[in-house]
Amino acid sequence: MSEYRRNPTIVICILAVMAVGAIAVGLLAAGESGWGWFGSHDINTTYVFESSESAQGQMMLNINLNVGSVNVIFTDNASLLYRIVIVVDNSTIASCGEPSVTLASGTIGLTYNVAEVNVTLGTGVNYTLSISTDTGTINVALANGAHIGDMTLTTQTGSIVLVLNNDVVIHGSTVFSLLANTGDITALVSIPPSVGGSFTGSSSVGSVSITPVGWNEISDNHYQTSNYSVAEDTVTITASTNVGSITATLT
């Protein structure tokens, strides 16, 4: 459940995943399980939703946009369930209504038409991610002790950037699917030493460039770590685009 409060000061929070830089914005604490407030100026309105609601086990982040960008980062904060900042053009609000974030049955949900969505997740639960855009960009940075399960990132026309740092926590057989119909996919993958890794890249019309450091070539554009077949915890990554390029660095 969320509570809204108006404030004339707009909160601008641009969370960059790939060396774009970030502006951290301090947020006022309020509400028991979730809250949101928004400020507006002539062009955009910014909505902020945050929850520190206690949760255990698995939590899914499910975001669907028609047009826009989704940026996801993690912060080393076990009490934070999510902080979601949504920037929407006022003309979109007039035609589509205000966006809302739901929390029900272990799923954090957002479905909207056109927006810029910046998500910060904590480290108190294990997250699965399902993020899709018809037209737009998806950037996900898995770092700062992120607990991560299966992940599916999909764009019909746009780009996907994944950064996986070696301080993440992975349990069991985890699968990442990066799918673009028309667009480029970039992956910078560094997994914990105890975790086995597999990466496969494919492009129907375009190029695939993979730089493996310590990964073994299994077949064309398919690489694995030496412990993949015996590791208790594994991450299997597939990156596929119909028209576009795949660029990956594996360490």
Structure, explained:
The chain is built from 1 helix and 16 strands. It has 251 residues and is mostly beta strands. It has a 16-stranded mixed beta sheet that branches. The chain is globular and about 55 Å long. The model is unreliable at 1-35 (pLDDT under 50).
Q: What is the chain-wise order of helices and strands?
A: EEEEEHEEEEEEEEEEE
Segments where pLDDT lies below 50 for 5+ residues? 1-35
Globally, the shape reads globular
Sketch the major β-sheet.
16 strands, mixed
Characterize the quaternary organization of these chains.
single chain
Round the Cα radius of gyration to an integer and report it.
18 Å
SS element count, helices? 1
Give the DSSP E fraction (strand runs of 2 or more residues). Answer: over 45%
Structural class comes to mainly beta
Helix content: under 10%
Task: Give the integer mean of the pLDDT values.
Answer: 86
The tally of strands reads: 16
Distance between the termini: 42 Å
Q: How would you summarize this macromolecular structure in one to three sentences?
A:
By secondary structure, the chain is an all-beta fold. The chain has one helix and 16 strands. It has a 16-stranded mixed beta sheet that branches.
